[in-house]
Structures are given as structure tokens and as C-alpha cells.
């Protein structure tokens, strides 16, 4: 997603997901550990890694800590490692599971569906496979759309959701958000075949454009770029954008009373901050009874990179 920093006009680029999902109940999820990677290096100290087969996809995840379950869902163009700067802190209080969404990083796609509801069903299957009882789900950017769909589809199976710095398809604020000049990439990535053809073998040139807008280290940027380096990975990201119209339909149709506590947060410098009150009102209007507005100070769109301590504190406050 796009936004601008300091002297740049950071008009946030939006992402979305879409579609009406045939929910996951009948699929069998099997989780397993991947080669013992605990303490494989300083940056991953305290982490273990694994995979789970859900609905045809194989989801890769990182795990750490003990306590109530906390699932972290990344945005574009990132993978599970978006959360690495705050996992150790969160793991003092929670069982933290950071997931690669289908088709991204070390997760496989499983099918041609990349809408929010399908990915929410993936994550729900993962939670079942890992025996995570009523997790709290935090999603940033595309992950925020998945968190919203999770709360809609599986309200009895989570204790709350946090949606960070994204507009929600089908709800008030969405049309304005994708109409911003900074969201130019939405239409580009939705165009059939064109982005895959133009960016083939040089996705990093495009993705660096977005990542430079956050306070990512060069190592963090390199890791994110690797998660989209193959043709299949980049195609999966494009398909998530192409699912926007179906996501908007999902957002318009999914209404009704829902008691799941929702936190909607933005960076204080994010273009979504100006739409936040409308998005919160739209969430309430769609039936969510408990919606809280939150702000991460000294941050734009990439909240963990811009202000990891404040982002971690926000999650700790509500999870």
C-alpha cells in the first residue's frame, strides 16, 4: 500500500480483498513443524516455524510465546516478517502466530481464490489445526481485510479483531480511498496479465517503491522482496487486488448484529486517518456493536516499521 512520508505526499495505497467464500468447515487442516528452525539465528531467536494444509493451500507460519492466542496477518508487499520487530515483546504475554497469506512467501496458493473471505477461512483452518482457542486476530493492510472477514464469518471463534490502516471494500470510505492519486497502483495491479508481464523478474523495482515509504531497514526490505520474488508469488498479490470487486460485494452483504470487539487503527500521518471516523461509523452501521478508534503516533502506513513500540502497546492493550 502506498502513503507518503515527511515531504512526500503519502497518499496511501489501498488494498483489498474480496468475494463471497464457500466457508471452510469441511476441510481438514494438518499442521506440522518445518525443519527445526528454533534459534536459527539472532533475528529469529525464540521462533519456531511450521506449515498447515488448509483448503488446498499450505500456510507457512512463525510461532513464539505462551498465553492467549494472537494471530498476526501481514499486508502488501510484506510477509509474516512484517511483525518480527514486535513478536518477541508480544510473545511475553501471548502465543503469537504470524502467517504468510496464501501464495505469499513460503505459503502456497492452493486455488485461484484470493478474496478476503477465502483467506479468512484459511486462517481459521490454521487456528483449528494449531488448536488456538478463540484467538485475537490483528491484520494490517490486506491482512486487515482478512481480519474483518474473519470477524464476520467466525464471530464465535475469536475474542476480538484489530484492523490496521486500510479501508474496507463495500463500506463507507472505500471509494474515496481507492480514488486517491496515491492509489494509482490498484488499477494497475488489477489489470489482467499486464503487471505480471511488465514486472517479470524485476518485481523489486515496483515493490521497493512502496516499502521505501516506511522506516524499514534494508534487511527488512530484502526479506519482503523475497516473499514476492517468484512469478507465482507476484501473481498471487495481483489476484488479491483483482478480488476487490468481490470483496466489496462481501462487505455490502455481510451485515447484522455482531458482538466481536473491533479496533480500527491508523497511523497519525496516514491518509486513512482522515477516513477513520467514517470507517468506524460504517463498521457500527454494518452491525458491529463494539468498535474502537485508535491511532499509532509518529507513523504513516507501515505501523510496525514506523513505530514498533506504539504498535505493540496498542495490540497489548486490546488483545
What are its keywords?
319 residues; alpha/beta; Rossmann fold; nine-stranded mixed beta sheet; 16% strand; globular
Commentary on this structure:
- The protein is of the alpha/beta class and 319 residues long.
- The protein starts with 29 loop residues before the first strand and ends with a helix.
- Strands 1-2-3-5-4-6-7-8-9 form a nine-stranded mixed beta sheet, with helices on both faces.
- It has helices at 84-90, 116-129, 142-153, 174-179, 184-190, 194-199, 203-211, 218-226, 231-242, 244-253, 276-285, 303-306, 308-318, and strands at residues 30-33, 48-54, 57-64, 69-73, 95-99, 136-140, 160-164, 262-267, 291-296.
Describe the structure concisely for a colleague:
Helix content is 37%, strand content 16%.
Q: Layout of helices and strands, plus pairs?
A:
Blueprint: E1 30-33, E2 48-54, E3 57-64, E4 69-73, H1 84-90, E5 95-99, H2 116-129, E6 136-140, H3 142-153, E7 160-164, H4 174-179, H5 184-190, H6 194-199, H7 203-211, H8 218-226, H9 231-242, H10 244-253, E8 262-267, H11 276-285, E9 291-296, H12 303-306, H13 308-318
Strand order in space, largest sheet: 1-2-3-5-4-6-7-8-9
Give the domain tally: 1
CATH architecture: 3-Layer(aba) Sandwich
Taken in chain order, the helices and strands follow as: EEEEHEHEHEHHHHHHHEHEHH
Can you summarize the main beta sheet? 9 strands, mixed
State the distance separating the first and last CA atoms: 25 Å
Write down how many β-strands occur, each being a DSSP E stretch of 2 or more residues: 9
Using the CA coordinates, give the radius of gyration: 17 Å
Low-confidence stretches: 1-28, 35-40
Report mean pLDDT, rounded to a whole number.
Answer: 89
Shape summary: globular
CATH class: Alpha Beta
CATH topology: Rossmann fold
**By CATH's scheme, which homologous superfamily applies?**
Alpha/Beta hydrolase fold, catalytic domain
Count of helix runs: 13
Beta-strand proportion: 15-25%
Question: What would you call the structural class?
Answer: alpha/beta
Helix content: 25-40%
Amino acid at each position: 500500500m502506498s502513503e507518503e512520508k515527511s515531504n512526500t505526499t503519502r497518499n496511501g495505497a489501498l488494498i483489498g480483498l474480496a468475494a463471497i467464500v464457500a466457508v471452510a468447515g469441511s476441510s481438514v487442516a494438518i499442521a506440522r513443524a518445518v525443519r527445526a528452525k528454533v534459534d536459527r539465528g539472532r533475528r529469529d531467536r525464540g521462533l519456531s516455524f511450521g506449515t498447515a494444509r488448509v483448503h488446498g493451500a499450505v500456510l507457512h507460519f512463525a510461532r513464539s510465546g505462551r498465553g492467549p492466542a494472537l494471530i498476526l496477518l501481514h499486508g502488501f508487499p510484506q510477509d509474516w516478517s512484517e511483525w518480527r520487530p514486535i513478536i518477541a515483546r508480544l510473545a511475553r504475554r501471548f502465543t503469537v502466530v504470524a502467517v504468510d497469506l496464501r501464495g505469499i512467501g513460503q505459503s502456497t496458493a492452493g486455488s485461484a481464490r484470493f478474496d478476503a473471505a477465502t483467506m479468512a477461512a484459511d486462517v481459521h483452518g490454521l487456528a483449528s489445526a494449531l488448536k488456538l482457542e478463540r484467538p485475537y486476530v490483528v491484520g494490517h493492510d490486506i491482512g486487515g481485510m482478512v481480519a474483518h472477514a474473519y470477524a464476520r464469518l467466525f464471530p464465535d471463534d475469536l475474542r476480538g479483531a484489530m484492523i490496521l490502516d486500510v479501508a474496507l471494500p463495500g463500506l463507507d470510505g472505500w471509494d474515496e480511498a481507492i480514488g486517491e492519486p496515491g492509489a494509482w497502483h490498484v488499477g494497475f495491479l488489477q489489470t489482467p496479465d499486464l503487471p505480471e508481464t511488465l514486472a517479470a523478474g524485476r518485481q523489486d523495482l515496483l515493490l521497493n517503491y512502496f516499502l521505501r515509504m516506511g522506516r524499514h531497514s534494508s534487511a527488512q526490505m530484502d526479506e519482503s522482496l523475497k516473499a514476492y520474488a517468484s512469478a507465482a508469488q507476484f501473481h498471487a498479490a495481483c489476484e488479491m487486488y483483482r478480488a476487490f470487486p468481490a470483496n466489496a460485494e462481501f462487505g455490502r452483504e455481510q451485515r447484522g448484529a455482531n458482538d466481536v470487539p473491533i479496533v480500527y487503527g491508523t497511523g497519525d500521518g496516514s491518509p486513512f486517518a482522515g477516513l477513520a471516523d467514517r470507517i468506524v461509523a460504517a463498521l457500527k452501521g454494518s452491525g458491529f456493536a463494539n468498535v474502537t478508534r485508535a491511532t499509532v503516533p509518529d507513523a504513516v502506513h507501515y505501523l510496525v516499521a514506523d513505530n514498533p513500540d506504539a504498535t505493540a502497546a496498542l495490540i497489548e492493550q486490546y488483545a
